[in-house]
Amino acid sequence: MDLQTQQQSIIAEFQACTEWTDRMKLLIRKGETLCSMNEMEKSDCVVIKNCQTTMWVRICERDGELEFCGDSDSKTMRGIMALCFEALKGANKELLASVEFSFLEEIGLDAIVTSNRSTGLDELLLALRNPQSLRD
Predict the structure, then answer these.
(1) pLDDT tens-digit map of 1-30
(2) Hey, what domains does the chain have and what are their CATH numbers?
């Protein structure tokens, strides 16, 4: 599945939720799919601050495809990370720098992201696009 199709799938999944509370529950469930990281794993991650919470992101390349791993103290930010990772599944380095995350607006995420979380989201998206955050 290409990245645009993956993003459209996420949009459809969220649009099927007619109530905002259902969208939040879906976002939280998405975040629960991320594995929690222990302190040793977190030490090998890009740390994203500038948010109400701290986020840890690790990007590895295996067989030409990128693998994403992340954790956060916030259920909301874990959900957002999970959505971004899902949207990027199968991406390679060349796609990473130019990928668009417009699907986040289309699912109405901007309605729940506070200004502090918005800054953290911007930092997360920068880290995901930044090849220097790659780990071999």
Answers:
(1) 688 899 999 999 999 998 989 999 999 999
(2) 3-135 (3.90.1010.10)
